[in-house]
């Protein structure tokens, strides 16, 4: 890429202003994209869960991951693993929806492991145990899909059938479907 076209802020740090699709993949400059989540937003835990659930339900787990990442970076030290684990699950779902089953399964399992310490009582009403079960079940399904995938043209390492991110969206709080 022409270095003069790289997106940089005033301090010279890389910033990617390219439009993105609903799964966070970059699109060509000038293409219509999905509005990006603002970075560094400090939300209450309740606002974080509500906004992330809205994005998950809309089939936008990459954007939900960014909401969880803000909470992980701005929240109290004792809660960082909770938010980091939720971010890993959301980006794991993103990879699964993009057809990267192997990478998605790894991230889903990593996120589930991070949440194990937060089961009872449910922090902020988050259904931790059902989320862990959802992540492990989806990881197993996509791993099976990767195992069945052939090695024909266009089927890279870890490729499998892409999942529908909206249909697979977990419920963060009790009272709805979990997967």
Describe, in short, the structure shown:
47% of the residues lie in helices and 0% in strands.
Task: Please describe what this structure looks like.
This protein is mainly alpha-helical. The chain has a single domain, classed as Hyaluronidase domain-like (Orthogonal Bundle), CATH 1.10.3450. It contains six helices and no strands. Helix 2 (61-74) runs antiparallel to helix 3 (80-97) and helix 4 (101-115) packs antiparallel against helix 5 (128-148). The longest helix has 21 residues, at 128-148. The protein is globular and about 45 Å long.
Summarize the SSE layout with pairings.
Blueprint: H1 45-57, H2 61-74, H3 80-97, H4 101-115, H5 128-148, H6 165-168
Q: First CA to last CA: what distance? A: 40 Å
Could you say which overall geometry the principal axes of the C-alpha atoms support? globular
Quaternary structure type: single chain
CATH architecture: Orthogonal Bundle
Count of domains: 1
Helix content: 40-55%
Q: Extract low-pLDDT stretches.
A: none
The CATH topology annotation reads as Hyaluronidase domain-like
Structural class: mainly alpha
User: Quick one: biggest sheet?
Assistant: none
CATH level 1 class label: Mainly Alpha
Radius of gyration: 17 Å
Number of strands: 0
Q: What is the ordering of alpha helices and beta strands?
A: HHHHHH
Main traits of this protein?
mainly alpha; Hyaluronidase domain-like; single chain; globular; 179 residues
């Amino acid at each position: 890429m022409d270095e003069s076209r790289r997106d940089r802020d005033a301090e010279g740090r890389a910033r990617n202003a390219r439009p993105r699709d609903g799964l966070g993949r970059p699109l060509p400059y000038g293409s219509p994209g999905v509005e990006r989540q603002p970075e560094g937003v400090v939300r209450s835990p309740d606002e974080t869960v509500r906004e992330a659930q809205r994005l998950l339900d809309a089939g936008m787990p990459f954007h939900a991951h960014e909401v969880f990442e803000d909470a992980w970076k701005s929240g109290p030290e004792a809660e960082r693993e909770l938010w980091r684990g939720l971010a890993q699950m959301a980006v794991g779902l993103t990879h699964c929806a993009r057809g990267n089953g192997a990478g998605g399964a790894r991230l889903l399992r990593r996120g589930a492991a991070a949440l194990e310490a937060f089961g009872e009582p449910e922090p902020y009403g988050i259904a931790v145990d059902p989320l862990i079960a959802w992540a492990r079940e989806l990881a197993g399904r996509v791993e099976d899909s990767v195992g069945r995938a052939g090695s024909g043209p266009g089927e890279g390492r870890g490729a499998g059938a892409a999942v529908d991110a909206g249909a697979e969206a977990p419920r963060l709080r009790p009272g709805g479907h979990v997967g």
